[in-house]
Write a structure and sequence with these properties.
The structure holds two protein chains of two kinds. Chain A is mostly helical. Chain A has two domains: about 35 residues; about 200 residues, Orthogonal Bundle (MetI-like fold), CATH 1.10.3720.10. In chain A, about 80% of the residues lie in helices and about 0% in strands. Chain A is built from ten helices and no strands. In chain B, a hairpin with a 5-residue loop joins β1 and β2. Chain B folds into two domains: about 180 residues, Rossmann fold (3-Layer(aba) Sandwich); about 70 residues, no CATH class. Chain B is an alpha/beta fold. The longest helix of chain B is centred in the last third of the chain and has 30 residues. Classes of the chains: A mainly alpha, B alpha/beta. Chains A and B meet through α7 and α8 of A and β6 and α2 of B.
Chain lengths: ~260, ~270
């Protein structure tokens, strides 16, 4: 127990230090350059606005909306990319068939899809989910493929001599669990790219979400709202990274 | 159809591989071998002689170019739970616990949960790891891992077990310990075992019969029955005699195998 608390502290301390340093530098910049409050409000004022948005529940609504969009897109692409990645990693034929499409679409930034998404879906939910889908598909897919390819062939042989002689049981009992650590890494990375993409999509076209909060703050010259939105993105990013890291530890069976 | 040990009959199995330039390379010349039910057969030979290739074909991981092999009256075509295997690199499933690994084959055979656990524990007891049943694989040392792998191979009671240099990665003391443990388990279950090794003392310690293979392309140079009672003392005069004999033959093959390698490099 003491050990766990100690470990938690050891991980939280550098983070807390960084926050303190950021606030100090921020305060210094405000003190030295004296920017107009609509451009860069001091930390105290921003904290005040954070509290106001927090207390009114507005912050939760925006955060929840953004999260829901990312989660739904991330789940959809997970359901597609994991089976597809397993197939591509396992079968050279499937890989040769699908890989050219991946090669062509992967270098196109998901942000480049935002205009098309607006044209096709308007500014409703579908367009934003679509953009996040583009952002989350490839990290999950590529990690899954790599995970299957990295499986030691001897593990597959072991599965076969222990009774997994048909493909479905081999996938279920050996290939999927063997690739799982890599799949979790892919899901972690794609959650990050999805989280970045949703903010961008909401900046361009939305009436809700953290990206909207930021864009709206800019339009009405309220940098404090912009900063609150940015802070919230950072806080959630750190939380999800910690969550996925513990998930990854859980699924790497003490190998790393 | 598992349970009783079965004989293995190898008839004219040969394997030709494709080299990188597309030329055929003879890996294995036609091999004929009859292994009795419950026999412990050890194959020794210089590295690259094709003994692992032969074992892989027998386990069903590769088609032979010619010939066929039968376990009992079943022709070998693809891997099967009736033919167990122990690998040099252990090949345990790290996402399962120790006992989860041993239960794997039993579950595939449809053994009910309670019975499965009992059988698995019994096999873990045989390798002295009953207290480690719920540990993770990555908490174990190499020697312990291979003991789990042995328990895992024996638990579903296959007709025959192939072992591909199972102790090759272990230190000498662990190796000696595991050889004895394996012998005890084998004496209890009398499974047909085909065991591949580089080590001459290991072969003499374990084998009913030793097959010496030639340098590449591999074929059988000769077979020797080891007529010594267990447990065999490596210091005994008879043991030494077998050793001298086998080393003499293997030295000759090793010289040939170096010549082959040198030729490959020049070509």
């Amino acid at each position: 127990m003491l050990l766990r608390t100690g470990k938690l502290l050891a991980r939280a301390l550098p983070l807390a230090t960084a926050v303190v340093v950021i606030v100090i530098v921020w305060q210094l910049v405000v003190a030295i350059f004296r920017p107009h409050v609509s451009l860069l409000p001091p930390p105290v004022l921003t904290a005040h606005e954070f509290w106001a948005l927090f207390a009114s529940g507005e912050l939760f609504v925006h955060t929840g909306t953004s999260l829901a969009r990312v989660l739904s897109a991330w789940t959809i692409t997970g359901a597609i990319a994991i089976p597809l990645g397993l197939a591509m990693g396992w079968s050279r034929r499937v890989e040769r068939l699908v890989d050219p499409f991946v090669e062509i679409f992967r270098p196109i930034s998901p942000l480049a899809w935002i205009p098309l998404a607006i044209l096709w879906f308007g500014i409703g939910e579908a367009g934003k989910v679509f953009v996040v889908c583009v952002a989350t598909l490839f990290p999950t897919l590529l990690s899954t493929i790599a995970g299957v390819k990295r499986i030691d062939p001897v593990l597959v042989h072991a599965g076969q001599v222990l009774g997994c002689t048909d493909q479905p049981s081999l996938f279920r009992k050996v290939i999927f669990p063997a690739a799982l650590p890599s799949i979790v890494v892919g899901l972690r990375i794609s959650f990050g790219t999805g989280w970045a993409a949703i903010i961008a999509a909401e900046l361009v076209a939305a009436r809700s979400g953290l990206g909207y909060l930021i864009a709206n703050g800019m339009e009405i010259l309220r940098a404090d709202k912009v900063l609150v939105g940015m802070a919230m993105i950072g806080i959630l990013g750190v939380c999800f990274d910690a969550l996925f890291r513990s998930l990854h530890r859980r699924f790497s069976w003490g190998e790393e | 159809m598992t349970g009783a040990s079965k004989p293995l009959s190898v008839r004219g199995i040969a394997k030709t591989n494709q080299s990188r330039t597309g030329e055929p390379v003879e890996a294995l010349l036609p091999i004929d071998l009859e292994i009795a039910a419950g026999e412990f057969l050890v194959i020794v030979g210089p590295s690259g002689c094709g003994k692992s290739t032969l074992l892989n074909v027998l386990a069903g991981f590769g088609e032979p170019s010619r010939g066929e092999a039968r376990v009992g009256d079943m022709k070998i075509a693809g891997p099967d739970i009736d033919r167990g295997m122990v690998f040099q690199s252990y090949a345990l499933f790290p996402w399962l616990s120790v006992i989860g690994n041993v239960e794997f084959g039993l579950e595939r055979k449809g053994v009910p949960r309670r019975e499965r656990r009992e059988i698995a524990l019994e096999h873990l007891r045989l390798v002295g790891l009953q207290d480690f049943a719920d540990r993770g694989i990555n908490e174990l040392s190499g020697g312990m891992k291979q003991r789990v792998a042995i328990a895992r191979a024996f638990a579903p009671e296959p007709s025959i077990i192939f072992m591909d240099e199972p102790f090759g990665a272990l230190d000498a003391l662990t190796r000696r310990f595991l050889q004895r443990q394996l012998l005890r388990i084998w004496q209890q279950y009398r499974k047909t075992v085909v065991f591949v090794t580089h080590s001459v003392p290991e072969a003499i310690t374990l084998a009913d019969r030793i097959v010496v293979m030639t340098a590449r392309p591999g074929r059988i140079r000769r077979t020797t029955a080891v007529d010594l009672p267990h447990p065999r003392e490596s210091t005994s005069e008879r043991f030494r005699e077998y050793e001298r004999d086998l080393y003499a033959e293997l030295d000759e093959e090793l010289a040939k195998s170096f010549a082959v390698e040198a030729r490959d490099l020049i070509d």
